Amino acid sequence: MTWAENAISDPSQVENVLQFHRGLRLLKHPHFLLLYVPDDQSKMKLVKPATDPYHRERIMKRIDKEERVLPHYALSHLWGITKTEPHLWTTIGEHVDDENEEPAAPVSMRREKRDTLIALLKKHPDSYWWIDVLCARTDTPLAIMGDIYACCTLCYAMVDCDTSTIREMDRKRKQLVFSVYSTWTLKEYEEAVAVLQKFTECKWWKRVWTWQEAVLPKYVILLSETLTDFHDYNMVDIAYLTSFYQNLLYSTKVPEELAGIEESPAHNHILQEINNSRLHNGYCMYTEGEVNTPMDLLELFESFAVSPRLCMDPVDYVYGVLGIFQFDIPRINDPDQVWQLFLTELENYLADPKRVKISDAYERALASVFTGDQARQCNLLSATNMGQVYQCLIPNSLK
């Protein structure tokens, strides 16, 4: 019996029990599929760990004893398709067999991303992957999406940008880290701000679903969706990216011409949102014995409330953030019903002392705002972005 199998019957053996069992539940889920990439260049295939003892055993043996995550990689990418332009990849069946050992049916993927994806997969022989267009079905519960990303060993995010943008950003980051204090010219500083701004103007950053794909995994590597050269300088760890942003925002190297201004030119709502959200998620997921407070949730909701992220279906303003709360809301098409269910789950969450600690009258009042009349009256159908939805959870005194 492996240490992982033994831990199922004796959870006390595992320090991070909650994270570990989140992954084990996923392995048993009947809708959880993974793409297996063989090490002999043979055809890739979809496997279902819940009903495939061979691959389930292999996965269990590879669970990281320190990180408590599953050994699969996850892929994040911008779909960029429409009803009139589905960008069907009709030859995907030449590369992949489905779980029934038949050639995989055509999937939607823009042509410019296909070679990058195949090359990335081949770079990782004998590996497991979760790729939405291959592994998700119309009946896949949306609630498990958060588990898939939170429990992956690493998420590769294919961003709609030029490789040169990431390379320049990496160069500027190293220049900022290693340059002598107070030696940056205004031009150098503005160039660093500009390359960050250019990167976060990509459409990948503007979608609701990519929020959890950037926040929930412990490790996220960003690369161009058209990348062909997989050297480290052509990719960037999201932790380095947010660190670069924080250094720009608060650095003592800010040119003296900018001293005393009210808001730093480096301020970037997208990166601030990702930084705050990853800090919140890391604190909750990887800090033993800690629980949330209403103040923690307020900081998270304030990040949501300035988010320009968009989605095609209003219900995704809820489903796209469920992973950080681990709420289980069934797939429903009615936006108002979904929102009311979210608030009910949030109310139950706030009432659970094992998950949220409320210390004083101010925090009790804050918790009541999150699920009060103002929140209940929010209309997802009229919202033009994610920020408009979560403004409803912010006390009027803080707006």
Structure explained in plain terms:
α7 (163-178) packs across α8, α10 crosses α11 (269-286) and α11 packs antiparallel against α12 (294-305). With 399 residues, the chain is of the alpha/beta class. Residues 1-5 and 7-15 have low confidence and may be disordered. Among the domains are: 3-152, no CATH class; 311-399, no CATH class. The strands form two sheets. The chain has an eight-stranded mixed beta sheet with strand order 5-2-1-7-3-8-9-10, with helices on both faces. It has a two-stranded antiparallel sheet with strand order 4-6. The protein is globular, with a radius of gyration of 22 Å. The chain is built from 18 helices and ten strands. It comes from Lichtheimia corymbifera JMRC:FSU:9682.
Record the SSE blueprint.
Elements: H1 3-9, H2 17-28, E1 34-37, E2 44-47, H3 53-62, E3 73-77, E4 88-89, E5 96-97, E6 107-108, H4 111-122, E7 127-130, H5 132-135, H6 144-150, E8 154-159, H7 163-178, H8 186-200, H9 209-215, E9 220-224, E10 235-237, H10 238-250, H11 269-286, H12 294-305, H13 316-319, H14 322-325, H15 335-350, H16 361-370, H17 373-376, H18 386-390
Parallel strand pairs: 2-5, 3-7, 3-8, 8-9
Antiparallel strand pairs: 1-2, 1-7, 4-6, 9-10
Helix pairs in contact: 7-8, 10-11, 11-12
